[in-house]
UniProtKB/TrEMBL annotation, chain A:
This is Uncharacterized protein. It comes from the Bacteria.
UniProtKB/TrEMBL annotation, chain B:
It catalyses: DNA(n) + a 2'-deoxyribonucleoside 5'-triphosphate = DNA(n+1) + diphosphate. The active site is at E105. It is an enzyme of class 2 (transferase). GO terms for cellular component: cytosol. Poorly processive, error-prone DNA polymerase involved in untargeted mutagenesis. Copies undamaged DNA at stalled replication forks, which arise in vivo from mismatched or misaligned primer ends. These misaligned primers can be extended by PolIV. Exhibits no 3'-5' exonuclease (proofreading) activity. May be involved in translesional synthesis, in conjunction with the beta clamp from PolIII. GO terms for molecular function: damaged DNA binding; DNA-directed DNA polymerase activity; magnesium ion binding. This is DNA polymerase IV. It comes from Pelobacter propionicus (strain DSM 2379 / NBRC 103807 / OttBd1).
Length: 83, 410
């Protein structure tokens, strides 16, 4: 597995659960739609006064870190680990 | 259990378990978490790696010799501090008497929570189940009448253990337990006790107090009590802990440096980190310490300077640190630098009298406001713009989830 760090704005489809829990369902990266098979870890961080929600998710072939900035409501792809 | 009931919670191979949870490919495999720098050592290893001899603090080549199939993962400190903060919050729901001991350990005094939750064992099971359900992580919990025994109990079964030491079992438990199992007895003390013919806690507890005091001074009495499993120290929640006496940061450099200009850049960065934290929590200090460790790792020098007035502005801390640096002889290249502000008082900056000073204060305030909003080092000194890694890269043992000890890590 090779790990890369990046900072790319991406489109993400999510389910906002009744308990306020956010569940990424799919995301687009390099013109390809990746279906999330599992969210393996989630944690919160801060960048200045912005709250960042980090999700580690898997698709069929890799592991991705998606970050949601609750202040400006944008999604970033921050890390990729693929075969 | 009569009297006090203390729980000690210890996360199992915390950083490595978080990484294994985040990446299913790593589960069940020997992995080790390392820092991002070239000089990094093993921060922690998974149980699979530990079984093969990989230990915390080992050099990477050493760990690979023990375990050629070892997978190295560069640690993500924000992931660990965030997870720790949430785990500590969860535990705070069972008792307000929660003492965060380190990023992955805490003491809980549940004496007054038993009526609400039934028993200490039930509280322990609830905590374990919630941590497992929320994060997929395991922890070991020890239950005992005091902190010393609770910590010992949590060490007895790992991973995923739950050990109870009842008051009536203390003497039997301590009898054959090696003294090194006691929290606070390091290798040097263990050697000294061995020279006195003391190997087990039972032997330590029976030892003549005078003999121990002759050898170790006032610690002798405490050692005897430890051997007997006696510990009256309370669980101290963060808000009742003593005020912080210093604000400091240090960094191991990516490469050894000798040029003054290079050293100054790091000193400015450290001064900004110290100043930012001091200002954020409304403290200023009169004494600035500079610590330098040299390339050979073993030699170091530290010096301090007490100033006429209290300071918290980064440039004032920097100026004092540079003044100290200029009094030092640097016989070899520098490996680590540390800056610390002590002699603290809890009062922000005094209103400066002169216009020039007032302008400086306004500038610092404006910089702080920008950095509060957009993140540390967003607006910084021009000479730091080329520095690649800025901010704290390691989680200090003094890290706490709240207050002045809560350092944002990268």
């Amino acid at each position: 597995m090779q790990r890369h760090q990046t900072r790319e704005q991406i489109r993400v489809a999510v389910i906002f659960g009744a308990n306020g829990r956010i569940q990424p369902v799919w995301f687009e990266w390099r013109r390809r739609k990746h279906t999330v098979t599992a969210t393996t870890y989630r944690y919160e961080g801060k960048q200045g006064d912005s709250r960042l929600l980090h999700f580690t998710v898997t698709d069929e072939g890799g592991l991705f870190e998606l970050t949601y900035n609750t202040h400006d409501q944008t999604w970033q792809l921050r890390g990729i680990e693929v075969e | 259990m009569d009297g006090r009931v203390i729980l000690h919670m210890d996360m199992n191979a915390f950083f490595a378990s978080v990484e294994q949870q985040a990446n299913p490919e790593l589960r069940g495999k020997p992995i080790a978490v390392v820092g991002s720098g070239a000089r990094s050592v093993i921060t922690t290893a998974s149980y699979e790696a530990r079984r093969l001899g990989v230990k915390t603090g080992m050099a990477i080549w050493e760990a690979r010799r023990c375990c050629p199939q070892l997978t190295l993962v560069v640690g993500d400190n924000r992931k660990y501090t965030s997870t720790s903060r949430r785990i500590m919050e969860m535990m705070g729901e069972y008792t307000p008497a929660l003492e965060v001991f380190s990023i992955d350990e805490a003491f809980l005094d549940v004496t007054h929570s038993l009526n609400l939750f039934g028993s200490a064992e039930r509280i322990a099971c609830l905590i374990k189940a919630r941590i497992l359900h929320t994060f997929g992580l395991t922890c070991s919990i020890g239950i005992a009448p005091n902190k010393l025994l609770a910590k010992m109990a949590s060490d007895m079964k790992k991973p995923d253990g739950l050990t109870v030491i009842q008051p009536g079992e203390i003497t039997r438990t301590m009898e054959r337990l090696p003294v090194a199992e006691l929290c606070g007895i390091g290798r040097s003390m263990e050697r000294n006790l061995l020279l006195m013919g003391i190997r087990t806690c039972g032997e330590l507890g029976r030892c003549d107090e005078e003999r121990l005091t002759r050898r170790f001074g006032i610690v002798g009495k405490r050692l005897k009590e430890m051997g007997q499993g006696i510990d009256d120290s309370p669980v101290i929640p963060q808000e009742e802990q003593e005020e912080v006496k210093s604000v400091g940061h240090s960094m191991t450099l990516a490469r050894d440096i000798l040029q003054r200009q290079d050293i100054l850049k790091f000193l400015l960065q450290l001064s900004e980190m110290v100043g930012r934290r001091a200002r954020r929590y409304g403290v200023s200090g009169r004494t600035v310490h500079l610590y330098v460790r040299f390339a050979d790792f073993y030699s170091s020098v530290g010096r301090q300077e007490t100033l006429p007035g209290y300071i918290s502005r980064s440039e004032d801390i920097y100026r004092a640190a540079v003044a100290i640096l200029d009094t030092l002889e640097l016989p070899q290249a520098v490996r680590l630098l540390g800056v610390r502000l002590t002699n603290l008082r809890h009062q922000g900056e005094q209103l400066p009298l002169f216009e020039d000073e007032r302008r400086r204060s306004r500038m610092v305030r404006a910089m702080d406001e920008v950095n509060d909003r957009f993140g540390d080092f967003t607006l910084t000194f021009g000479s730091l713009l080329t520095s690649r890694e800025k901010g704290s890269q390691v989680i200090s043992p003094a890290w706490r989830p709240q207050g002045i000890r809560n350092v944002d890590v990268r």
